[in-house]
């Protein structure tokens, strides 16, 4: 088994404390005499890099699988009733980009009840094949039948890579299917690429977004990755449809479930910040809740929405669905104006793909400026009212 | 009725930075705490324990110092705590972690209901719960907002979906992952701290597990591997604007006009 071994004679003369601190996962321990590696180890090999004399990585060769038996990049098509979740299109775009590099086809997997019209729509996005399972048992998302269908699809088509949107359904389904195939899954990837040997390069933020991790699945197929909405760009819809949907069948006995759906309650529809082209973000610089009216006024003028940082959610000043960041939403608007936001890494993780970033902050050293296209140093209470007045004037002149 | 809750110890702070030259993490202390999302899982179980007189076990996989979160669970009211710890588990990714946990849970005997947090703040994958359920071959429901009913045979829950709430009735045994805010977690109690001070934390090692094939655990049982870690890319060249507030406001408005946002 591959492992990291500790050369105790090289430990002598070194501070155990210093050695322990090298590990981001607290996996190095000392009993006063010897240094050892415990079960917290993730084999990131930072210790090996830092103290090559003490820590050594020994690798054991394992039998390699035949990767050529797995072909194609499959995208799971998530849908809410009869509309396709837009993250699915974004994934088709990414899949096509990668498939072109390795000469593989792109497949869509669609499951549900009466989903034929959605399949037709998918043909306009350049997939090579749309496979669909249309069964009454699949009307509602229930984990066992959905997993069974996914399993059936993989066994028949044998895709090398499977991409799933990081939606509520995707985040529940993808791990279940990946575990069934005893294969790897990387959640919430922010960058994807593919090697000539079809290995998927999966890059995701780790450690609360402070670090990026580059992950691969060298000896298992299929390779699973989930990606959140608004990370990649959706391809343009083509007028011409290509190919035709192919219906696959699965025996009803395989769709048995221990789950019964008693009721589906619609949530009241709120426009989500993920869909806004322009976002004005209010940060902790806003001294009281009433002052947020300035942010709302600015957003209204620009036809956009207001979003906030986490402290404002904690203060109860806004609906949690308006939070941007690692524990909130990821947004990718055309324009984002942050007002009195420091730019903590957990916040930035949710917005640094915006096309244009304007940051207003009175602290010239604010971290947010490192991701801003326009770094505006000043007080929001002076700048925003002036800006609103001028915008209003420009708008009237425009008419 | 037996409930098992999965809890994990995570770093106490997310303020870690990486040194670009050496690739080494810069850390202030190494304090750690219970994964905040697991507090909600534990609270959910504690309510069921007092409602239904259920037995409540917690299980965690981690290094020996993770005993601390099991102690904390005792202070909140858990009956028994198990720590899955062995060098053979080192280097585990999601799959190997879930597998080891599922083996650990099996070794405890029957669980009617398994509850996990929605996600961890260090792994942040939300995958471990569903994968455990797959290994145990029981149904799962993720993102549970509320428990509407629980009896000897089944549990009825509200599942949080993007645009709807689905009410599902699931036969036991099953696994649920709970949303935060399902219940407000209680604080550890000083009384329980004293009362449980001598209560042992049971260690589960590789030898206690039913499956003794080493290749299913740790690094060897992990299909994914971390190739490297690196700091997030620094961004874009930017224009810096300084000056009087009024001027900046005017300039911004003109800029937005120029960029055709108005
Ligand atoms: C695991 C984890 C997850 C997290 N997830 C998120 C998340 O999803 N989203 C999120 O937002 N946060 C998240 N956080 C919190 C995050 O670390 C920061 O604490 C938060 O983003 C800070 O919000 P802020 O910028 O509004 O406030 P502050 O950091 O307090 O910044 C306020 C800024 O306003 C400036 N300012 C003050 N007054 C004025 C004025 N009059 N005019 C102009 N500028 C002014 C100050 O210079 C300062 O830079 C998370 C933290 C953790 C640990
Ligand atoms: N090492 C672990 N020990 C016990 N439970 C865990 C462990 N890792 C994850 N979990 C559980 O799985 C949930 C999801 O974790 P994750 O997939 O890492 O986001 C957590 O909230 C825990 O309940």
Present the secondary structure layout.
The complex is a heterodimer of chains A (399) and B (262).
Chain A: E1 3-6, H1 8-11, H2 16-21, E2 28-30, E3 35-37, H3 46-50, E4 55-58, E5 73-76, E6 79-80, E7 83-84, H4 86-102, E8 106-112, H5 116-122, E9 129-134, H6 143-157, E10 161-165, H7 168-180, E11 185-186, E12 191-194, E13 200-206, E14 211-216, E15 223-227, E16 245-247, E17 259-266, E18 278-282, H8 292-301, E19 305-308, H9 310-314, E20 335-339, H10 345-348, E21 356-361, E22 374-377, H11 380-398
Parallel strand pairs in A: 5-8, 5-10, 8-9, 9-16, 10-15, 11-15, 18-19, 18-20, 20-21, 21-22
Antiparallel strand pairs in A: 1-4, 2-3, 6-7, 12-13, 13-14
Helix pairs in contact in A: 6-7, 8-11
Chain B: E1 2-6, E2 9-11, E3 17-18, E4 25-26, E5 32-34, H1 36-52, E6 55-61, H2 67-76, E7 80-84, H3 94-107, E8 113-116, H4 128-136, E9 140-150, E10 154-160, E11 164-171, E12 174-178, H5 190-195, E13 202-204, E14 225-230, E15 239-241, H6 245-258
Parallel strand pairs in B: 1-6, 1-8, 6-7, 7-13, 8-12, 9-12
Antiparallel strand pairs in B: 2-5, 3-4, 9-10, 10-11
Helix pairs in contact in B: 3-4
Question: Would you give an account of this structure?
Answer:
The complex is a heterodimer of chains A (399) and B (262). Chain A has 399 residues and is an alpha/beta fold. Chain A has eleven helices and 22 strands. Chain A has helices at 8-11, 16-21, 46-50, 86-102, 116-122, 143-157, 168-180, 292-301, 310-314, 345-348, 380-398; strands at 3-6, 28-30, 35-37, 55-58, 73-76, 79-80, 83-84, 106-112, 129-134, 161-165, 185-186, 191-194, 200-206, 211-216, 223-227, 245-247, 259-266, 278-282, 305-308, 335-339, 356-361, 374-377. In chain A, strands 11-15-10-5-8-9-16 form a seven-stranded parallel sheet, with helices on both faces. A five-stranded parallel sheet of chain A has the order 19-18-20-21-22. In chain A, strands 12-13-14 form a three-stranded antiparallel sheet. In chain A, helix 10 (345-348) links the parallel strand 20 and strand 21 (356-361). Chain B is of the alpha/beta class. Helices cover 27% and strands 28% of the residues of chain B. In chain B, helix 3 crosses helix 4 (128-136). Chain B is globular and about 70 Å long. The mean pLDDT of chain B is 90. At the A-B interface, helix 3, helix 6, helix 7, strand 11 and strand 13 of A face strand 3, helix 3, helix 4, strand 9 and strand 11 of B.
